Amino acid sequence: MKARQSSVIVKYNDKDITKTITDYIEGFEYKDNASGTADTVTLKLNNRSGKWSGSWIPIQGDYVEAIIKLTNWKKEGDNRKFNCGYFLIDDLSYSGPPSQASIGGISTPINTDFNVTKKNNTWKSTSVKGILETIAKNAGVGLFFSGQDYPIEELEQSDQEDVTFAFNLCKSYNLAMKLYNKKIVVFDQTDYEKKDASYTINRENVESYSVNRSMTREYDGVTISYTDASKNQTLTYKFLLKNGNRILKLNETAESLQDAEIKAKAKLLEHNRQCQTMSISVKGDTKYISSKCVQMDGFGKLNGKYYIDSVTHNKDAGSGYTCNLDMHLTILVKGVTVATVQSGDTVKKAAESSAASKTYTIVSGDTLWKISTKNLGSGAKYMQIYNANSGVIESAAKSHGKSSSSNGHWIYPGTTLTIPG
């Protein structure tokens, strides 16, 4: 069998400089984050010639593209390339002796004010996707949105950079946001955690590991306050798992029942996802990608399906290549919505969805969220109703002078909908 090799192809301002830097490169690191922060890349170089702090020193606006290349990796003919993406250079550091240079890049478009300028903005009559489309356009990047969109009546962006505001917005609605290759990528993390494991990692193939299991961090339920504008009252939304002995009480408030349900469940997931985490170091492989699920075996009662939060690819000057994976045990939130309206000791449970499809005629004051809560047990399922009735909903919106319904934001009394079973 021919020798196994790992290497990195580097393009600098669109020019392939791989051969040029071969004698200088001492290490390469790429951190692939599923959500919450930008991906990064670091090139570690010897600087004995002084070129990297002299004639070759990067300037603002320079960028690199990195591709991990594997040759005969697991067997002869197993040749692969993995595109790490596009990174604007944002960090330079130098040390010695021996004289070394480190060039760091970030997947954020730093040649715009995307992650620099703190802004104040009031977003009205839009949606999560609508806000992100505007932010992406202003940053000069694309948007790939595969999660469920949520309507937003009004939302304040207060003294926040667009990148921080976008990350927090997605987090509030249980959406993952990633910056990759000149794009903002948004997806529903819960949907990804429901997927089957892409592969299995056995303990015998792990070079090192650490596991943290918090016995007291897990919550059985969550409560949040919201304002009922029609009644001018502050009410409480509660969602329970199990018997609900440990309740997470949120200090933030929501603007509506819809907002309360989304934010409460998102925060509950955020806390409970950190109850069991695992970090491992394994032989490098381009199959390790953040946001995938992996089955961990050989760890006794710590076995299970884990979601990859981040992967750090490390490459030395030779063919040494390792990956460090940070993961959490996947969880699914299954419970009952309690106290969609709560007054004293009186609670109401969400209506359970019918096993078969039925019809519903919209009345004044309805929203798809309200209809979904009543008929499917959760307002967050409103897109199921929209998708099943998009033609009818869009036709009604146009007949009332709208160019579109904005994904079901505009609905009208008298429209008959099919409620999916």
UniProtKB/TrEMBL annotation:
PROSITE patterns reported in the protein's UniProt record: LYSM
One Pfam entry name: LysM
InterPro entries, A to Z: Bact_Kbp (IPR052196), LysM (IPR018392), LysM_dom_sf (IPR036779)
Protein name: LysM domain-containing protein
Every LysM domain range: 358-419
Organism phylogeny: Bacteria, Bacillati, Bacillota, Clostridia, Lachnospirales
Gene3D superfamilies hit by this protein: LysM domain
